C-alpha cells in the first residue's frame, strides 16, 4: 500500500494558489461568452500553458516521481507557444475581424522542436529509469529550449506592442483620455511580462557557464512564481475590464478604414 507523504513548502503553496487561480480564469476566458471571446480564448490558452508549466514545476518539487514514476513523460511544457498566443490575443483584441487561418499555425511550429526534445528525454528516461528532467538529453537540450522560448516571447511581445502602438496612433483623436488609459494597462503588463522573461537570460547563463546546468530547478522558483503571477494578473485584468472600448474601436475602424471588413493576412 502506497503511503502518501508529500513535503510541501511555502513555494509549493504559492504554486498551488497560482495554478488554481490560473485554471479558473483560463476556463472563464475560454468558455464565458463575451464580446472579446475569440481574443480571450488565445489568452486563456496562454494562461493554461503557464498553469501546466507550474504543474510540472510543482511535480518536481513534491517528488511526485516517488508515487507516479512516469509522470514526467507527460507533455506539460509548451513554452514556445506563449509568445504566439499573447500576440494573437492582442491582434484579435485590436482587430476583431482578423481571421486565424491555417497559415497562422506556422507561428506555433517551434513547438515541434520542444516536443522532439521531450521525446528524446522520454526515450532516455525509459532506458535509465531517471525522470526526464534528470537525463543527459534534458541537460543538453534544456538551455536551447529556454533560449528559444525567451527569444520567441520577446519577439512576439515586441510585435504585440507594435500593434498596440499603432492602435493608439489610429484612434488617438476618436477616443477620450479615459478610453485610451483603459488600454494602456495591457501595454504596461506586456512590458512587465517581457522584463520578467529577460531575467531568465542571466539565470540560464550563470547556470550553464558556471554550474554546467546543475543548479537545480529550485533556483528558478522565484522566476517561475513571478511569471505565473504576471500571466494570471493579465488574465484577471482582461476578464474583469469592461469591453465597451473594443466595440467603439472596432466600429470606428470599420467606418474609417476602406476594406476593413475584409480578412487580413
Summarize the topology.
Blueprint lengths: L9 H22 L5 H25 L20 H13 L16 H18 L7 H36 L5 H22 L1 H12 L9 H20 L3 H13 L9
Number of strands: 0
**SS field, number of helical segments:** 9
How would the global form be characterised? Answer: globular
How large is the share of residues in beta strands? under 5%
Structural class of the secondary elements?
mainly alpha
Gross CATH architecture: Up-down Bundle
Give the overall pLDDT as a whole number. Answer: 83
Q: What is the CATH topology descriptor?
A: Rhopdopsin 7-helix transmembrane proteins
- Please trace the helix and strand order, writing H or E for each element: HHHHHHHHH
Radius of gyration (Å): 20 Å
From the structure provided, what is the oligomeric state, counting identical versus distinct chains? single chain
Specify the helix fraction band.
Answer: 55-70%
How many separate structural domains? Answer: 1
CATH class: Mainly Alpha
For the report, how would you describe the main beta sheet?
A: none
* pLDDT < 50 stretches: 244-251, 254-265
Distance from N terminus to C terminus (CA atoms, Å) equals 58 Å
Brief write-up:
This protein has 265 residues and is an all-alpha fold.
Amino acid at each position: 500500500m502506497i503511503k502518501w507523504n508529500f513535503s510541501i513548502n511555502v513555494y509549493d503553496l504559492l504554486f498551488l494558489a497560482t495554478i488554481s487561480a490560473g485554471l479558473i480564469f483560463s476556463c472563464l476566458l475560454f468558455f464565458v461568452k463575451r464580446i472579446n471571446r475569440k481574443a480571450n480564448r488565445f489568452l486563456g490558452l496562454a494562461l493554461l500553458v503557464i498553469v501546466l508549466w507550474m504543474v510540472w514545476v510543482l511535480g518536481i518539487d513534491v517528488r511526485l516521481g516517488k508515487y507516479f514514476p512516469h509522470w514526467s513523460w507527460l507533455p506539460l511544457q509548451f513554452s514556445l507557444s506563449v509568445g504566439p498566443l499573447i500576440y494573437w490575443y492582442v491582434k484579435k483584441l485590436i482587430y476583431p475581424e482578423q481571421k486565424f487561418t491555417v497559415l497562422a499555425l506556422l507561428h506555433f511550429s517551434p513547438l515541434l522542436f520542444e516536443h522532439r526534445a521531450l521525446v528524446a528525454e522520454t526515450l532516455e528516461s525509459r532506458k535509465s529509469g531517471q525522470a526526464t528532467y534528470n537525463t543527459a538529453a534534458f541537460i543538453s537540450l534544456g538551455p536551447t529550449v529556454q533560449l528559444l522560448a525567451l527569444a520567441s516571447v520577446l519577439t512576439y511581445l515586441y510585435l504585440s506592442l507594435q500593434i498596440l502602438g499603432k492602435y493608439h496612433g489610429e484612434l488617438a483623436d476618436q477616443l477620450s483620455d479615459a478610453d485610451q488609459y483603459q488600454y494602456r494597462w495591457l501595454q504596461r503588463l506586456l512590458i512587465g511580462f517581457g522584463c520578467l522573461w529577460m531575467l531568465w537570460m542571466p539565470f540560464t547563463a550563470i547556470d550553464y557557464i558556471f554550474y554546467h546546468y546543475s543548479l537545480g530547478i529550485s533556483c528558478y522558483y522565484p522566476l517561475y512564481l513571478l511569471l505565473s503571477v504576471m500571466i494570471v494578473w493579465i488574465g484577471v485584468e482582461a476578464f474583469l475590464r469592461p469591453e465597451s472600448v473594443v466595440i467603439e474601436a472596432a466600429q470606428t475602424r470599420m467606418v474609417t478604414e476602406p476594406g476593413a471588413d475584409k480578412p487580413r493576412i
